[in-house]
């Protein structure tokens, strides 16, 4: 990265969210409450964190907005797409994440966010069956072709920009996990091939999320993939981001169990303890849990969650400690728990003279309470990247992602170590603010 002049955050910032469920409505309500002074944006790095800049007598700790020009919460406008027609107030009440007393003060603002019809294909999320979906122009009983989806989404973005007078827009995927889609070199490795497959309505190899990402970038909007879908993590999308000058971030919000794993695995590695096995399981009862109850959708999430540990505790670098451990991840749909997810980790380690020990972690978390500030930070920092002219994959935002994007075609390895990710984030902010990027990674 190189020092770049950052354009000011003038005007309105539109945040268009794919999915108007628990995460999206918790994000919206939280921003609305915070800008009224009725709630604190706890958990948001852009709002609460301070970064050291300078050293010695010149050292000081500053909030992000004091280092770089950040969009303000007061300047945010929201829109959403969803397969269900309920407005954001109705969806927030149904989701049950926030208490009614915290929703009612912003009821009118939430009611104004009425989701647009979603570009949806039931084959990618069989557990969802909403009727607020886009239909083919020539046949109102059929779903659009993939290219028709793109054109409809582009018009949605243009209409929202006009209606709200937004100077910039970020598109955020906060919808359900799609079924696992293997990367296909024939279609996914070049932009021309991807566009050809979209025009040919190749529904097997073009996921609906790809249509959102393509439409966003063509309309000059950064795109953030908050689920583990195969979407912007393919060479064709990297080419599109380069051609359009758009920042892209992916994939899968790092919130509960994986946040703990990316922070605790370095403890084992730094202390040179041996690992025999790490078993992770979850119970979750919200809409995300319902979708993940389908094995095809769960496999997408499983691949994402499994990728974290192997890059932190590397059997290739330290085979005597990490060459043969067992790693398993499970998610179980349990409706009574709702959005209040519970995760358990059982970790089998060995210490001095290979004597066995165990670590147990029980995290009773709130999925959307953890995800909402991550979503906000990704939107604000992607907008910052756009104004700085930083296009393509924003590796410095890996801190927020469960499975950070990397160029696997060049055998690049993702950085999953939480503290290394934080160093990347701080260095990028320092650089953008005209300070020295003075922390290094091994």
Write structural notes for this entry:
The protein has helices spanning about 20-35, 45-50, 65, 90-95, 100-105, 105-110, 145-165, 185-190, 190-200, 210-220, 235-245, 255-270, 285-290, 295-310, 320, 365-390, 420-430, and strands spanning about 10-20, 50-55, 60-65, 75-80, 115, 165-175, 225, 245-250, 275-285, 325-335, 340-350, 355-365, 390-395. The longest helix is centred in the C-terminal third of the chain and has 22 residues, at about 365-390. It is built from 17 helices and 13 strands. By secondary structure, it is α/β, with parallel strands linked by helices. The mean pLDDT is about 95. A 7-stranded parallel beta sheet has the order 5-4-1-6-7-8-13, with helices on both faces.
What does the main sheet amount to? Answer: 7 strands, parallel
Uncertain runs with pLDDT below 50, 5 residues or more? Answer: none
Strand order of the largest sheet: 5-4-1-6-7-8-13
Task: State the total count of DSSP E strands.
Answer: 13
> How far is it from the N-terminal to the C-terminal residue, by CA?
17 Å
What is the percentage of strand-forming residues?
15-25%
The gross shape turns out to be globular
How confident overall, as mean pLDDT? Answer: 94
């Amino acid at each position: 990265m190189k020092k770049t002049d950052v354009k000011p955050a003038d005007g309105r910032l539109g945040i268009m969210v794919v999915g108007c469920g628990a995460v999206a409505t918790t994000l919206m309500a939280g921003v609305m409450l915070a800008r009224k002074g009725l709630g604190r944006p706890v958990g948001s790095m852009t709002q609460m964190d301070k970064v050291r800049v300078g050293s010695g007598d010149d050292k000081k700790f500053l909030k992000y907005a004091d280092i770089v020009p950040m969009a303000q919460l007061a300047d945010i406008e929201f829109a959403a797409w969803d397969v269900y027609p309920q407005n954001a107030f109705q969806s927030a009440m149904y989701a049950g994440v926030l208490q009614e007393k915290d929703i009612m003060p912003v009821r009118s603002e939430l009611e104004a966010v009425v989701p647009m019809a979603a570009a949806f294909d039931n084959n990618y999320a069989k557990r969802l069956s909403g009727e607020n979906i886009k239909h083919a122009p020539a046949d109102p009983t059929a779903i659009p072709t993939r290219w028709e989806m793109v054109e409809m989404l582009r018009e949605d973005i243009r209409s929202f920009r006009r209606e709200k007078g937004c100077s910039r827009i970020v598109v955020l995927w906060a919808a359900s996990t799609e079924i696992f889609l293997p990367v296909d070199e024939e279609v996914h490795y070049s932009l021309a091939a991807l566009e050809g497959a979209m025009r040919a309505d190749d529904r097997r190899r073009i996921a609906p999320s790809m249509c959102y990402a393509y439409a966003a970038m063509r309309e000059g909007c950064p795109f953030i993939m908050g689920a583990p879908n195969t979407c912007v993590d393919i060479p064709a999308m990297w080419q599109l981001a380069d051609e359009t000058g758009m920042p892209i971030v992916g994939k899968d919000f790092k919130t509960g169990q994986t946040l703990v794993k990316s922070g605790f695995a370095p403890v084992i590695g730094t202390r040179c303890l041996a690992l025999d096995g790490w078993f992770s399981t979850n119970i979750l009862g919200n809409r995300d849990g319902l979708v993940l109850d389908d094995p095809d959708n769960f496999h997408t999430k499983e691949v994402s969650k499994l990728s974290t540990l192997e890059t932190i505790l590397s059997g290739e670098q330290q085979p005597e400690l990490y060459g043969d451990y067992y790693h398993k991840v499970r998610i179980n749909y349990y409706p009574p728990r709702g959005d209040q997810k519970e995760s358990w980790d059982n970790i089998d380690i060995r210490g001095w003279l290979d004597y066995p020990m165990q670590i147990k972690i029980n995290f009773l978390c709130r999925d959307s309470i953890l995800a909402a500030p991550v979503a906000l930070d990704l939107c604000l920092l992607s907008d910052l990247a756009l104004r700085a002219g930083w296009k393509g994959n924003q590796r410095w935002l890996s801190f927020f992602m469960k499975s950070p994007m990397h160029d696997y075609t060049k055998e690049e390895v993702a950085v999953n170590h939480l503290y290394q990710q934080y160093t990347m984030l701080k260095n990028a902010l320092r650089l953008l603010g005209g300070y020295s990027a003075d922390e290094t990674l091994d």
